[in-house]
Structures are given as structure tokens and as C-alpha cells.
């Protein structure tokens, strides 16, 4: 029980710290620059708060360990909580090590969503370990896999931060966030015939975000066309979002997703009008350090994932006679390893934009596969 | 017609990581598809719902025809795995000369320092950084300076690669972690080992089931996937039993305890051996792994019978005695014919025994639990006397029987892959060149991982520039 309360506090804390980091990322909470004086550093409240709540999260896992009387990653709920901890922890570590503002933002949001997913979808019961799970290889696989996923998520998060730096509008950013919220909630409570409709709307918002991003990157005259497509998509997404609850009998939770998906871009549009923040400002400083951290975490994540797969294969040989059984978890981990493997193959000495996009896409894909 | 890309030959395509990436994309597509379309449940997995409950018969027929319900055993999947193996083989052959050349050469080739001051991309996976400094120090002082720097940073001793004396150019070189490209090459080799192991398992692997009842040897295997062609079909009462094979040995449940843990006895013409089976602890016999799956009591009981020879005070106890099976004694044998319930009259539960001494006709008689001396009193002239001590539920265990000839290859290659990958990730092949000419010096660095190498290079540049320019300033 204590563990669940602490986890709730930690997840709430991640949400608040993500908003604080986002506020700095949007350039809203920056100290004023005075002529002739050095630029003062932004207070990193988001990072400090996230660190505090990472400690709370750690305590939640420790209490769970005490309650279960075994290492707490034997059930899907426990495993996801551990993965959420590793993702948030790797992101925070990355921001401290690279000293780059906003480096942990993506990781904290991802950690929050993984934790929320575990909280909403999975059974919280403390269960005794099954006889098959009473193997050192099983526990080794669990912890190394979580560390690997944390490191890879951090790599994806830093790539996303670099990509968004000064190049995307608030509308696009929050449209992407809307798509993520809608998808996460639908996956969480998605046992409905109409989920395809809701996912389609989330997909349109996602496309809107993508085109928004591309518009900022494109050169003239493609920019004009991209801008038109983005505007058209925005209108279509809005109409579809508003029409959805009326036209289909979506469940309550999905309606909430729809409302959020509709409200966030509208809010972003208003913010954009009021504050005239056309682009997300350069909150991510120290780009080279950030790239190095992203690359290091990619290398270590891939290596740890290989080790986790070997530990899992040995455990599989002992418990089921097969080193690989194509279970849902194994397929997800393999596909994540392949996705990041592609990034590693494409990686050369410098992190080009293509590599950054591939890393970010791999991270989003990993989240999707994990949730699926 | 001239090709637009004359450099892009078929060999380069087959030995390129672009093809590897494409194949990885295809494999990812398979993984995603397997999460969207329900797959045929695997034997013993205990998970997965029958596809008939998920899809309509028409849709299921279509999915099965398209091979979408068993994606990872489909021909397409195996085809792409084979292409991946070929791609990796081409990569190995293509990269080997460069890897071997790096290992064999004592020092890197000289560089044209003046051309490398600005960052420039070199060959495949190789990038250069360069810096120049003006200096007033002499040739030998420069050599000493570089040697000291290398010693301070625990690097190898610099090798002169261009040293003609006098005022001509001096070029020193240091190489670090030149085994790194070899580690990358080994990782590719290990990946091939994994894939070939997977292929061997798919082609020659076997998975089956044996149900062993206490007191009754199991002599046949139920085949679930693959089979050894040397095993004949299982024939019972003159009928061939489809799906069952005779592996040429029998398995007995020698002992069972409640952990659960089974002791198995394997009998064949080669002799008898035993093996323990528990959860996560398979037993191995003749290349097969026997894994514990489940155990349950059967409807039939087994009996505990004591046999005494003449007036000897000691008796031999037979536990787990099952009806119909003959048990050997010295010069005699017995078997249980039938069992009786607890009847009125105080005799208690009973069993009917068929007893045969060598060279004589069998005789049948009853023994009773509540009257241990009954048989001795009734059959005084017999060599052996029987006492019925009790009964217990008869256990039956289900064993999963597996043979995967590829498993050692997969696991061994997997470990090699991990070690090579970890080594490759931890170390990168770095090279430094230190060039001197009167009044000018260059420092050139090359690495296959420039992003991580750059800060180090900047540091040494700073250090050396300070040392070089120091005396003149």
C-alpha cells in the first residue's frame, strides 16, 4: 500500500517536473537578459524536482520489494514500474552528465507514461513468484532489460530534444503530445469497437505534428505547401476530434482522451497568440555534450539489451526448453533491439539529422511496442 | 548505358549495411505484424487463445493460407533470415582485408598533415581532425615532448613513420585500440552463428511430450514438432499410432517428491541411467532434454507390498506397485491382478496377487491390509510370503522432451556477440599523428567514433599547443 502511494506521488511529481522543464523549454520562464551582462542560467526546477521524485520512485520500489519478499519485477506491473524508473533515471542522469537543459524532458515524460500505463492497466496485486521465475537468470534479465530500455529511451529523448531545438512550433509540439495522450489513454482503456476511430484521430494529430515539424525545416517554396497541408490537417483533426464523441459510442476514458486531444492544441494556439512564441526556443544548450550522451547511451543500451536477451535465452532453455519462444515480450524486445540496431548501423562519427530522427523514431516505436 | 552510380556494384550492395538495415526493417515488420495478428499457440506455453475463438472461420482460413498466423515459421521469414546470413557473410569477406591490415601493420600510414588541418571525412567509418601550431622547438625536442605526452596518457610509444633527419619532416604516430575493428568483425561473425543456430534448430529440432505414470514405464513419445527420422512409428496392439514415435528407450518415474522434483530412470539397450528433473532443472539423456511440465494423481492407486522369504525377519518392500506389472523376485515373480475395497468382516482393503515360482504354475491368492500374517498362515509351504501394507494415489508426470541442436550455437554465439559488442562499444580505434617541420607542427587524429574522440583530441591539442608554443612565447 505504501508503495502504491509513493508511486502515485512520484508519477504526479514527474508530471509537474515535466511541465516545469517544458516551461523553460518554451522560453517562458527564462531570466531576462540585460545588456552588457552575462546571460544568467535558467533555474532548473524541473530537473531538481524530477530528481527528488526519482528518489520517491526508488522508495516505492523498495517498499514493493519488502511487501513481495522477492525482487519486485516478476509481474507486468512491477516490471513496468521498474522500466519507468530506469527511463526517468537515465534521462535525469543524462541531463546532469551532459549539462544540457531539457535533455531529461523526453525521458521524464516517457517514464511518466510507462508508470501511468502500469498504474491504469496492470494488476497491482503482490503475487508469489512462480517456480519458473525462481531463477537467477530471470532476475538478471529483468534488471538489465530495464536498464537497457532506460538508456535507449534517454538516447531517443536527447535526439528528440536536439530535433525540436528552435525548429518546431508550440502547436506542433502539443499536437504530438495530444496524439500521445490520446493513444496512451486509448491503449489503457481501449477495449472498444470504436478504438480504431479514436486512433485514427490521434493519427491525424500525429501527422499534423509531423507536417508542422517538416514545415519549419523545409526550404521555400516547399514551406508554403507544407504550411497549407498542416493547416488543412489541423482543421481536419479538429473536426474529427469534435465529431468523434457525437458519432460514436466511445467509452468514458476514450472521451477524456478526445477532450484532451482537442483541448491541448487549442491551448497551444492561444499560448502562441498571447506570447508570440513562434518557435520553441533554444532551451537545449550544450548540444555537443547532449549528442555525446545520446550516443553513449545508445551504445550502452544496445549492449545491455544484448546481455538481457542472452540471460533470457539461458533462462528459457532451463525453464521451457527453448531459448526463444516468440512470446509477446520477446518479440517486443527483439523489435526494439532491431530498431536501435538500424540506428547504430546508420550512426557514423557525427549525429546527422537523419540519425537523430531515426533515434527519436526508434524511441517512440519502443514505447509503442512496449505498450502493445 | 552508363550507370548513374558507377561505384555502386552488386558486391557493395550485398556487403553494405544498407541491406542489413533494410532486412532489419523487414524483421521489425514481422514482429509488429505478429503483435497485430494472433499467432498459433505454442505447445506448453499455457498462453494464447485458440484462433478459432478469435477469428471467423473464413477470416482464419484466409490468414492461415497467407501464413500470417505462424509468421516466425513461415517460408518468408526463413527466406529473409537466410538473406541476412548471406548479407553478413558478404560483410565479413568485404571487411576482412581492412581488419587484417589494421591488425598487421605496425604503424599507420603517413598522412599529408597540411591537408588535414580542417576536419575531413576519410574512408568508410573514419574521420579525421587536425590542428596546427607554430613552434620554435627543434626536432628532437618535439620527439621527446610527444613521448612524454604519450607516457603521461598511458599510450603506446610513438613510432616514427617519416623521419629522414635534418630539417625534413618528422612524423610520429600512435595507434590505440586497433583491435576494435576486429571486435566489430567478430560481432558480425557471431550474428551469423546465432542465425545458423536458429536455422539448425528449426530444421533438425524436435519437441514432444511423454506422460510417465508411477510404476509404468513410458516407451513412446508424442511428437509435437519435428522428429528424429531414425525413430520408428509407435505400434500398439498391431496398430500404428499416428503422431507417436518409439525412441528406443523407456522412462520410469523412479521417485517423486512434493517440491516438485522427479527422479527419472532411463533404460535402453545401452544400459540404465538416472536423471533428476525439477522446475528450471532439465535432465539430459541421449541428446534430449527432459523438462518438468506438470504432475497429477491418476484415478488408479499404487500399492505398498512387503515380501518375506521363508522365516527371514527382514522383508523387501516394493513401493508403487501397480496392477498388471510383473515384479521380479529371486527365482520367482509376482503381479497384482486386482484390488478389493474395505469390506465387512474386518479384513480391510485387499489385493489379489498372482505368484509364480520358476518352473511351476502360477497361483492366485488375496492378501489383506488388516491381517498381515494371513498369507504366511495360509500358504505355509511357499518360498515367499506377501504383506499388503497400504496404497497411495498413483502419480503421473508430463514431461516436455526437446532437442535443439542449434541451442549451444545460439547461446555460445550470443555470448561471443555480447562480448564483441561490449568491447566494440567500449573501445574505438584511434590514431594520432604528430608532424613536425621547422617552425610548424601539426597534430592529426582519426577515429571511427569522432563524436566521442573529439573532446579528447581537443584536450591533447590544447596540451601540446601550449607545450609547443611555450618556449617561443
Short key terms for the protein model shown above:
A: 372 residues, mainly alpha, 75% helix, globular, B: alpha+beta, eight-stranded antiparallel sheet, 10 helices, 32% helix
Task: Report what the structure shows.
- Chain A is 75% helix and 0% strand.
- By secondary structure, chain A is mainly α.
- In chain A, α3 (76-98) packs across α5, α5 (136-164) packs across α12 and α7 (195-217) runs antiparallel to α8.
- The longest helix of chain A has 33 residues, at 287-319.
- In chain B, 32% of the residues lie in helices and 36% in strands.
- Chain B contains 10 helices and 21 strands.
- Chain B has helices at 10-14, 17-36, 51-54, 57-65, 75-104, 139-152, 180-204, 374-378, 407-426, 450-469, and strands at 120-121, 127-134, 159-163, 170-176, 206-213, 221-225, 233-236, 239-245, 250-257, 261-268, 271-278, 283-285, 288-309, 315-321, 327-329, 332-343, 348-357, 363-368, 384-403, 430-437, 440-447.
- The two termini of chain B are 62 Å apart.
- The interface between A and B is large, with 49 and 51 residues.
Topology:
The complex is a heterodimer of chains A (372) and B (473).
Chain A: H1 2-25, H2 45-68, H3 76-98, H4 105-121, H5 136-164, H6 170-188, H7 195-217, H8 222-247, H9 252-275, H10 287-319, H11 328-346, H12 353-371
Helix pairs in contact in A: 1-2, 1-4, 2-3, 3-4, 3-5, 3-10, 4-5, 4-6, 5-10, 5-12, 6-7, 6-9, 7-8, 8-9, 10-11, 11-12
Chain B: H1 10-14, H2 17-36, H3 51-54, H4 57-65, H5 75-104, E1 120-121, E2 127-134, H6 139-152, E3 159-163, E4 170-176, H7 180-204, E5 206-213, E6 221-225, E7 233-236, E8 239-245, E9 250-257, E10 261-268, E11 271-278, E12 283-285, E13 288-309, E14 315-321, E15 327-329, E16 332-343, E17 348-357, E18 363-368, H8 374-378, E19 384-403, H9 407-426, E20 430-437, E21 440-447, H10 450-469
Antiparallel strand pairs in B: 1-2, 2-21, 3-4, 4-20, 5-6, 5-19, 6-8, 7-8, 9-10, 10-11, 12-13, 13-14, 13-19, 15-16, 16-17, 17-18, 20-21
Amino acid at each position: 500500500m505504501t508503495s502504491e502511494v509513493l508511486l502515485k506521488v512520484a508519477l504526479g511529481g514527474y508530471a509537474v517536473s515535466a511541465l516545469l522543464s517544458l516551461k523553460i523549454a518554451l522560453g517562458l520562464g527564462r531570466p531576462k537578459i540585460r545588456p552588457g551582462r552575462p546571460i544568467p542560467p535558467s533555474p532548473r526546477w524541473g530537473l531538481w524536482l524530477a530528481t527528488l521524485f526519482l528518489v520517491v520512485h526508488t522508495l516505492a520500489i523498495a517498499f514493493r520489494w519488502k511487501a513481495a519478499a522477492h525482487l519486485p519485477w516478476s509481474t507486468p506491473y512491477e516490471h513496468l514500474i521498474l522500466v519507468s524508473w530506469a527511463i526517468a533515471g537515465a534521462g535525469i542522469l543524462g541531463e546532469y552528465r551532459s549539462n544540457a537543459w531539457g535533455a531529461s524532458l523526453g525521458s521524464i515524460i516517457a517514464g511518466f507514461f510507462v508508470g501511468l500505463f502500469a498504474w491504469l492497466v496492470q494488476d497491482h496485486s503482490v503475487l508469489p513468484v512462480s517456480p519458473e521465475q525462481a531463477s537467477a537468470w530471470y532476475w538478471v534479465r529483468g534488471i538489465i532489460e530495464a536498464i537497457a530500455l532506460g538508456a535507449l529511451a534517454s538516447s531517443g529523448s536527447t535526439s528528440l530534444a536536439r530535433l525540436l531545438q528552435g525548429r518546431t512550433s508550440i502547436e506542433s509540439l502539443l499536437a504530438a503530445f495530444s496524439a500521445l495522450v490520446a493513444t496512451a489513454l486509448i491503449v489503457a482503456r481501449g477495449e472498444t469497437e470504436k478504438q480504431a476511430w479514436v486512433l485514427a484521430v490521434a493519427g491525424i494529430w500525429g501527422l499534423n505534428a509531423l507536417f508542422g515539424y517538416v514545415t519549419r525545416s523545409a526550404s521555400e517554396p516547399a514551406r508554403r505547401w507544407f504550411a497549407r497541408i498542416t493547416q488543412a490537417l489541423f482543421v481536419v483533426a479538429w473536426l474529427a476530434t469534435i465529431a468523434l464523441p457525437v458519432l460514436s459510442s466511445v467509452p468514458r476514458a476514450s472521451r477524456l482522451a478526445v477532450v484532451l486531444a482537442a483541448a491541448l492544441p487549442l491551448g497551444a494556439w492561444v499560448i502562441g497568440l498571447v506570447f508570440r512564441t513562434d518557435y520553441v526556443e533554444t532551451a537545449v544548450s550544450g548540444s555537443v555534450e547532449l549528442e555525446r550522451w545520446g550516443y553513449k547511451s545508445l551504445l550502452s543500451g544496445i549492449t545491455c539489451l544484448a546481455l538481457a536477451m542472452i540471460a533470457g535465452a539461458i533462462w528459457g532453455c532451463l525453464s521451457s526448453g527453448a531459448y526463444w519462444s516468440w512470446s509477446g515480450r520477446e518479440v517486443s524486445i527483439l523489435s526494439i533491439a532491431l530498431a536501435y540496431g538500424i540506428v547504430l548501423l546508420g550512426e557514423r562519427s557525427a549525429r546527422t539529422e537523419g540519425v537523430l530522427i531515426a533515434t527519436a523514431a526508434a524511441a517512440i516505436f519502443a514505447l509503442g511496442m512496449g505498450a502493445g | 548505358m552508363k550507370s548513374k552510380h558507377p561505384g555502386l556494384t552488386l558486391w557493395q550492395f550485398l556487403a553494405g549495411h544498407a541491406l542489413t538495415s533494410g532486412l532489419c526493417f523487414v524483421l521489425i515488420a514481422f514482429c509488429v505484424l505478429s503483435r497485430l495478428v494472433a499467432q498459433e499457440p505454442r505447445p506448453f506455453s499455457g498462453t494464447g487463445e485458440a484462433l478459432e475463438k478469435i477469428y471467423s472461420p473464413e477470416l482464419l482460413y484466409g490468414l492461415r493460407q497467407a501464413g500470417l498466423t505462424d509468421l516466425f515459421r513461415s517460408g518468408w521469414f526463413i527466406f529473409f533470415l537466410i538473406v541476412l546470413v548471406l548479407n553478413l557473410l558478404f560483410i565479413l569477406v568485404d571487411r576482412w582485408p581492412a581488419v587484417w591490415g589494421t591488425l598487421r601493420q605496425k604503424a599507420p600510414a603517413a598522412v599529408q598533415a597540411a591537408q588535414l588541418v580542417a576536419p575531413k571525412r576519410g574512408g568508410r567509418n573514419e574521420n579525421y581532425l587536425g590542428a596546427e601550431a607554430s613552434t620554435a622547438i627543434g626536432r628532437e625536442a618535439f620527439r621527446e615532448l610527444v613521448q612524454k605526452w604519450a607516457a603521461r596518457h598511458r599510450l603506446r610509444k610513438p613510432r616514427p613513420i617519416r623521419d629522414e633527419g635534418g630539417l625534413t619532416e618528422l612524423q610520429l604516430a600512435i595507434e590505440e585500440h586497433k583491435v576494435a575493428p576486429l571486435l566489430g568483425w567478430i560481432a558480425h561473425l557471431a550474428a551469423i552463428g546465432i542465425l545458423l543456430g536458429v536455422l539448425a534448430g528449426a530444421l533438425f529440432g524436435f519437441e514432444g511430450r511423454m506422460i510417465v505414470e508411477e510404476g509404468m514405464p513410458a516407451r513412446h513419445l508424442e511428437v509435437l514438432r519435428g522428429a528424429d527420422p531414425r525413430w520408428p512409428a509407435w505400434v500398439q496392439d498391431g496398430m500404428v499410432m499416428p503422431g507417436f514415435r518409439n525412441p528406443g528407450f523407456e522412462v520410469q518415474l523412479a521417485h517423486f517428491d512434493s517440491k516438485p522434483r522427479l527422479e527419472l530412470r532411463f533404460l535402453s539397450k545401452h544400459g540404465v541411467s538416472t536423471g533428476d528433473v525439477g522446475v528450471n532443472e532439465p535432465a539430459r539423456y541421449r541428446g534430449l532434454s527432459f523438462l518438468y511440465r506438470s504432475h497429477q494423481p491418476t484415478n488408479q492407486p499404487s500399492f505398498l507390498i512387503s515380501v518375506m522369504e521363508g522365516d527371514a525377519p527382514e522383508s523387501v518392500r516394493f513401493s508403487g506397485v501397480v496392477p498388471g506389472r510383473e515384479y521380479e523376485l529371486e527365482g520367482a515373480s509376482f503381479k497384482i491382478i486386482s484390488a478389493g475395497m474395505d469390506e465387512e468382516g474386518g479384513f480391510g482393503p485387499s489385493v489379489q496377487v498372482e505368484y509364480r515360482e520358476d518352473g511351476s504354475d502360477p497361483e492366485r491368492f488375496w492378501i489383506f491390509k488388516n491381517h498381515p500374517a494371513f498369507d504366511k498362515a495360509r500358504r505355509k509351504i511357499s518360498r515367499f510370503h506377501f504383506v499388503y501394507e497400504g496404497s497411495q494415489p498413483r502419480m503421473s508426470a508430463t514431461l516436455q522432451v526437446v532437442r535443439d541442436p542449434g541451442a549451444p550455437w545460439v547461446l555460445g554465439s550470443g555470448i561471443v556477440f555480447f562480448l564483441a559488442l561490449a568491447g566494440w562499444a567500449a573501445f574505438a580505434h584511434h590514431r594520432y599523428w604528430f608532424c613536425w617541420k621547422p617552425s610548424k607542427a601539426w597534430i592529426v587524429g582519426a577515429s571511427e567514433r569522432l563524436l566521442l574522440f573529439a573532446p579528447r583530441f581537443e584536450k591533447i591539442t590544447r596540451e601540446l599547443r601550449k607545450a609547443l608554443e611555450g618556449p617561443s612565447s
